[in-house]
Automatic annotation (TrEMBL):
Domain called DUF4139: residue spans: 218-627
Keyword DNA-binding among UniProt keywords: no
Annotated signal peptide: 1-22
InterPro entries: CarboxyPept-like_regulatory (IPR008969), CHP02231 (IPR011935), DUF4139 (IPR037291), DUF4140 (IPR025554)
Pfam annotation, one family: DUF4140
SUPFAM superfamilies found in the cross-reference section: Carboxypeptidase regulatory domain-like (SSF49464)
Protein name in the entry: Mucoidy inhibitor MuiA family protein
Keywords: Signal
Location of the DUF4140 domain: 35-133
Length: 634
């Protein structure tokens, strides 16, 4: 029996070994097919088609985004496959990942640095030789008389040696400059190429068991944090007889390390970073904390702030103010970077959701000391100092931004400038807790941190109307406002609203639906075609001193004028003073046709003012107060 157990064990071990030997490992080529961009982050879906024999297979997805969430990895389309394991593996600066060209350039760089070190050593030797010759210019001693012939020979010898040393110094200096230039050329070539081998990536190793030989299609999906989108709007008022046009726009960005080329793109209003716990009450004892902070949602809207720097540019030069081409400029802790051009110029987009701790630029180049500068201005210039003592220890952190910079704002085969956007007819779908917008064309979004704008849809707001508002006591100008009673049906999100009046940009406002009233209003600024003037009618203003009190009678005239060719609706507001004590009395109040709010003293006139006509409003009141106090002005 004991012998049988040992034999059984040996057989089991042999079977296990056979299974391991039968396991086949292959690197699969996957393509990004679909991306869903959330307010913060994105879900990336890759697809592969692979032939599998019966047995166990190890499928390796290489070079995926280093920012992907390992817990979010999903595999679908399995059919007759059984997943045995999914193992993510982080890669940093793998030596074997370097291309042959990179290794050749690095070898050239080392050789050139050795030549520079040698030439600098020779430069020191010639300098010392020159110092020795100068010190030995005095022949004999002070009391030694040197013959003329000997002096002539000595001077000629000295001159000859000094000229030789000078020539050697100049030759060495030229050699150093020449090798320095060669090192810069190598650095310019190396910076774009070395990025991929130094960038953190993730390999996902999926082990599956296949029951039969088959051609299978699989989908691998995962969540990346370095992406997002934010909404904005264009509100356009063409004329007072047409409904307000509201254009929904999206600003999309990503710097995940993967370029999304010609993918199916969907924008979702969902936010995976929001807390998903349903709140539950717990027993609360008086005098003890009643903490529910775990349920509080963290504000994560990536709305660009007014002071946020979205783009930075500048020049990189050496200590003698000569431009340095090929210098790597990278944002700390990200894959967003670029390289300087032939003039030492760089330009870099700053992701809007970048954390304050990452708002630093790193400048690095072969043979120069690395610099770090905070992103506090839109223009950042720098001068790199040559690293004379550590040429062989310089680590190049490249990005390869030149090729990407040439793409500029080119997405999905359509060229756009910085302030333009692409008009798309998106498919809007409302889910139980979010809204999605499906872009109906294959779209390209590069991993450069830039914001790419698209127009999602345009709505002609039914029921919108316009009113003029005047508060002449505060400002003697008339403002045009648009009102949207049915805005709650528009699925609006917090964002900036660009205001256009008759196709002219008039300003910007901020929209936050969470704090908006039942009727949303947008102000389009002052309309000079409608005027208002408020003045005190002095002939009807007088003071009366009776006993210990003073009585003031005040009268004001408000003049309105409409020079437009159409009638307008206008609201005029003013106010009566209120009495804070029994010693003060406000009486004899008169404001014909005005609605009075007794609690606040606010007066409101709602008028229709015909085209080309004027109207006058009158306001009168009296105030009685003690002679020794309570005097108040306008």
């Amino acid at each position: 029996m004991r012998m049988l157990s040992v034999n059984s064990l040996i057989v089991a071990l042999l079977l296990s070994l056979g299974q391991l030997m039968a396991q086949k490992s292959q690197v699969v080529n996957s393509t990004i097919r679909q991306v869903t961009i959330y307010r913060n982050g994105a879900e990336v879906t890759r697809e592969i088609s692979v032939s599998l024999d019966e047995g166990t297979h190890e499928l390796i997805f290489k070079g995926l985004s280093g920012s992907l969430d390992k817990e979010s990895i999903q595999l679908s389309g399995l059919a007759d496959l059984t997943v045995l394991s999914v193992v993510p593996k982080m890669n940093y600066n793998q030596e074997e990942g370097k291309s042959k060209t990179v290794k050749q350039l690095e070898a050239k760089s080392e050789a050139v640095k050795e030549k520079i070190a040698f030439e600098r050593g020779m430069e020191q030797i010639y300098k010392q030789e020159e110092e020795m010759l100068i010190k030995n210019q005095q022949l004999g001693g002070d009391k030694v008389v040197v013959k003329t012939l000997e002096l002539k020979e000595a001077v000629e010898f000295q001159r000859k040696k000094l000229i030789e040393v000078l020539q050697k110094k100049l030759e060495t200096s030229n050699n150093i400059k020449r090798w320095d230039d060669s090192l810069k050329v190598i650095g310019k070539e190396l910076s774009p190429l070395i990025t991929d081998s130094q960038k953190a990536t993730i390999d996902i190793i999926v082990t599956v068991s296949s029951k039969k030989a088959d051609q299978v299609k699989l989908e691998l999906s995962y969540y990346v944090a370095d992406a997002g989108w934010y909404p904005s709007y264009d509100a356009k008022l063409t004329d007072l007889n047409s409904p307000l046009s509201l254009q929904f726009k999206a600003g999309m960005f990503q710097y995940s390390g993967e370029d999304w080329k010609k993918v199916k793109l969907t924008l979702s209003t969902a936010n995976p970073r929001d807390k998903v716990l349903s709140p539950l009450l717990k027993t609360w004892y008086w005098g003890y904390p009643n903490d529910y902070s775990q349920y509080q949602a963290t504000p994560t809207d990536n709305l660009p702030g007014e002071k946020n720097i979205s783009e930075v540019s500048g020049f990189v030069k050496d200590s003698e103010n000569r431009p340095l081409p090929g210098v790597t400029v990278i944002i700390e802790g990200t894959n967003v970077g670029t390289a300087t051009d032939a003039n030492g110029f760089y330009q870099l987009a700053i992701p809007i959701n970048l954390a304050p701790t990452q708002r630093f630029l790193h400048f690095s180049f072969i043979g120069y000391k690395t610099q770090s500068k905070p992103i506090v201005n839109r223009r950042i210039d720098t001068n790199l100092q040559e690293d004379l003592h550590a040429l062989e220890e310089v680590v190049v952190v490249g990005y390869g931004g030149n090729a990407r910079n040439k793409l500029g704002g080119r997405t999905a085969g359509v060229g756009i400038s910085k302030n333009e956007s692409i008009e798309l007819n998106t498919n809007e779908r409302e889910a139980p807790a979010s809204v999605t917008y499906e872009i109906p064309m294959d779209y390209t979004l590069l991993s450069d941190g830039k914001t790419y704008a698209v127009n999602l849809k345009t709505e002609q707001i039914a029921g919108s109307y316009y009113e003029y508002l005047a508060v002449p006591k505060v400002r003697q100008e008339v403002f045009l406002n648009a009102y949207l009673p049915s805005w709650t049906n528009l699925n609006l999100l917090p964002g900036d609203v660009n205001l256009y009046l008759e196709n002219n940009y008039v300003g910007k406002t901020r929209l936050d639906p969470a704090y908006a009233p039942d009727t949303l209003s947008l102000s389009f600024g002052v309309d000079k075609a409608v005027s208002v003037r408020r003045e005190q009618v002095k002939s009807y203003t007088k003071k009366q001193f009776l006993g210990g009190s003073v009585t003031e009678n005040r009268t004001y005239r408000i003049a309105l004028r409409n020079t437009k060719k159409i009638p307008i609706r206008i609201v005029v507001k003013d106010q009566y003073p209120l009495a804070r004590s029994k010693d003060i009395e406000v009486f004899d109040k008169s404001a014909s046709d005005a609605k009075v709010e007794e609690n606040t003293g606010e007066l409101t006139w709602n008028l229709m003012l015909p085209a080309g006509e004027s109207k006058e409003l009158n306001l009168r009141y009296s105030v009685k107060y003690p002679k020794n106090g309570y005097r108040a002005g306008e």
